[in-house]
Amino acid sequence: MSQPANAKQVAAMSTTIATPALAPTAAMPRSPAQLALRRFLHRPVAVAGLAVIVLFIGVAIFAPLIAPYDPIATSWTAIRKAPSLAHWMGTDENGRDVLSRVIFGARASLLAGVVSVLIAAGIGVPAGLLAGFAGGWTDVVLSRIVDAMLACPFLILAIALAAFLGPDLTNAMIAIGVSTAPRFMRVTRAATLDASSNEYVEAARAIGNPAWRIAVRHVLPNIVPPIMVQGTLAIAAAIIAEASLSFLGLGQQPPDPSWGSMLNSAQRFLSQAPWLAVFPGLGIFLAVLSFNLVGDGLRDALDPRGR
Amino acid sequence: MRGFLGTRIAQIIPTLLLVSVLVFCLQQLMPGDPALVMAGEERGDPQVLAQIRAELWLDRPLPVQYLHWMGNVLQGNLGYSWRIRQPVSQLILEKLPVTLQLGTMAFAIAVLIGVPAGIVAAVQRNRFWDYVANAIGLAGLSTPTFWLGIMLILLVSVDLGWLPPSGYVSLAEDWRQSLATTIMPAFVLGNAIAAILMRHTRSAMLTVLDQDYVRTARAKGLREFVVVLRHALRNALIPVVTLGALELGTLFSGAVLTEQVFSIPGFGKMIVDAVFNRDYPVVQGVVLVTAFLYVMLNLLADVLYVVINPRLRGA
Predict the structure, then answer these.
(1) Which one of B15, B64, B227, B314 has the fewest beta carbons within 10 angstroms of its own beta carbon?
(2) CA-to-CA distance for A296 and A140, rounded, in angstroms?
(3) Yes or no, beta carbons of A266 and B256 under 8 Å apart
(4) Which member of B29, B154, B286 has the closest CB to residue A165?
(5) Phi/psi of residue B171, each to 5°?
(6) Residue B186 CB: number of other CB atoms within 10 A?
(7) How far apart are CA A126 and CA A130, in angstroms?
(8) ipTM of the predicted assembly exceeds 0.95
(9) Are A298 and A40 in contact (CB under 8 A)?
(10) CB contact under 8 A, B150 and A263
(11) CB pairs under 8 A between A and B
(12) Minimal Cα–Cα distance from A1 to chain B, Å?
């Protein structure tokens, strides 16, 4: 917001007209990626979101060092204790420390978020690239399959897949990944169609490059920004989806902690131990909010015209 | 209009066919033999297993199985529940009105919150109320439905004792009790959609507020609320209708969790119960009917889009 209008216009132009003729010079020293990074860093909420994500990743990696107790060790003398100095977030119905379970729960949630999105991108990006670049019947068939998958509401499809595959975290990640893949395919296809009309693609074709090489070497690197935005927002959705599946009993299985399964058991003790429901939910909320903030920030930074 | 409708219907037929293939293929993901699951304690008896396989056409090639299943689906036969031995279509018809009531209330709440919030955010662009609306919208998008439900039960039912924490009473039975049991779940379900509608409305209003005819309306001295509500909103709502319809999927997905949290015996709770009872025909039936409803409601939204958009009406 603080940038002068002409600076914004220059930034927009340099991202949209990125041709070899406009290679960095003294007058225009920054690449589109550098300009996007600069715009991203000028958005304090997006940077705050990124900081929280880094914090969550740190917590997930160093969970065994940070957690004050063993997350699955039960204690019959500490059942449903309210938050105190000994147990900052209280204890659950089996006397387990809630803080330690929330810390270890971050592992399941972040892992599910990232792995599901990698699965989704692994299916959706090549399919979208193929549909957008090959066109014709390939595009028609792939697009109809995507339409059919998108017609099944995301969570219902994920529940059905998880149900048929069997309830555990790995299957939940596969189910979420497969259900998310059509969104990646749509975004990639649209970006590929857009990029394919550029002159550098024509030039690559004219010098006799095979189609697969043009798609992978010339088109793919130029459609990374929208895929990155989709990926960040999809991680947020995948974290909620994993928590939802675990809440329904189709994700992480007890006694291993997961924010969703912790909320499931907390439901039975709402009046006696409300803290059991507060902290895991806050964990999901903060993680999802952070990824959404970063996703929005990336979108604005990579496509300033959409602001 | 007829041409448009014909084209849209022609487009959705292959989609629905592919949905049916997808739903049919779900059963193939199941580990082990479905006949063993169905046979229960008689799984050791080869005669019983052979009989079940013959009844379910499991002893035929996959394409033949699909055609048989699809033939039944087209006649309204979605198979029988393995657990309670009732037709799946009958079970769905029993539960669907509950979810439709919840969904309709949720969508109404989402529109009542999301559209005005989007208008305020657009009119107050880059000012305090825009930031507030955006912050609340983002928080709404980031809050898991089931956690919001649990928190509201804690506050409204456990602490304040204002509304029942769970259960369902039908409208026909007692409309006051029905509203009391569904208003909180409907709010929870509508919350995420309200946030999305807010974003769509804000974006559409910002585009429209920059148009010449809005400037003209202002220039001829009309009051701001007349310009915003009568001139800008009418056109801004056109894309919101289609984009809002896409959120019906969010509504169906959210209903599964909301019904679980508030113990509402609807469509969503039925699929979860079916999953745990390994009642796969019910799971398949729910996915198929949900996808069908979603496609049909989107078709309706597309038709509505043409009807309310004067520029497309004559096309």
Answers:
(1) B314
(2) 31
(3) no
(4) B29
(5) -60, -40
(6) 23
(7) 6
(8) no
(9) yes
(10) yes
(11) 141
(12) 9
Q: Would you call B158 and A270 a contact, using CB atoms and an 8 Å cutoff?
A: yes
Distance of alpha carbon B269 from alpha carbon B96, whole angstroms: 11
Here the tokens at position B303 are 């038709």
CB contact under 8 A, A152 and B31: no
- Residues of B within 8 A of A164 (CB-CB) are 26-27, 29-30, 280, 283
Q: Which residue has the tokens 């208008």?
A: B119
- Residues written for chain A: 307
Distance CA A55, CA A69 (A): 20
What is the rounded distance in angstroms from the CA atom of residue B279 to the CA atom of residue A300?
46
**Minimal Cα–Cα distance from B199 to chain A, Å?**
12
> To which H or E segment does residue A176 belong?
helix A169-196
Selected for mutation to probe chain B from A239, A240, A250, A303 (highest B CB count within 10 Å) is A240
pTM: 0.86
User: H/E element holding A136?
Assistant: helix A136-151
Taking an 8 Å cut-off on Cβ atoms, the answer to whether B22 and A148 are in contact is yes
Q: For residue A72, what is the DSSP state?
A: T
Q: Which two tokens stand for residue A77?
A: 């003398």
**Which of B255, B40, B271 minimizes the C-alpha distance to A249?**
B271
Place of tokens 């969904």: B103
CB B21 within 8 A of CB B66: yes
Q: B-chain residues within 8 Å CB-CB of A176?
A: none
Task: Compute how many other C-beta atoms are within 10 angstroms of the C-beta atom of residue A259.
Answer: 29
Taking only the tens of pLDDT, chain B with its 315 residues reads 677 778 888 888 888 999 999 988 887 777 667 777 777 777 778 888 888 888 878 888 889 989 999 999 999 999 888 888 899 999 999 999 999 999 999 999 999 999 999 999 999 988 999 999 999 999 998 999 999 999 999 999 999 999 999 999 998 899 999 999 999 999 999 998 899 999 889 988 998 888 898 899 889 988 888 888 888 888 888 778 777 777 877 788 889 999 999 999 998 889 888 888 878 889 889 999 999 988 888 888 888 877 777 666 655
**DSSP letter, residue A255:** T
Contact A241, A173 (CB under 8 A): no
Burial class (CB in 10 A: 0-12, 13-18, 19+), B288: buried
Buried b (16+ CB within 10 A) or exposed e, B122-161: bbeeeeeebeebbebbbebbbbbbbbbbbbbbbebbeeee
State how far the Cα of A123 lies from the Cα of A174, in Å rounded to an integer.
11
Whether residue A153 and residue B280 make contact (CB cut-off 8 A), yes or no, is: no
DSSP label of A267: G
Q: Which two tokens stand for residue A129?
A: 């690239």
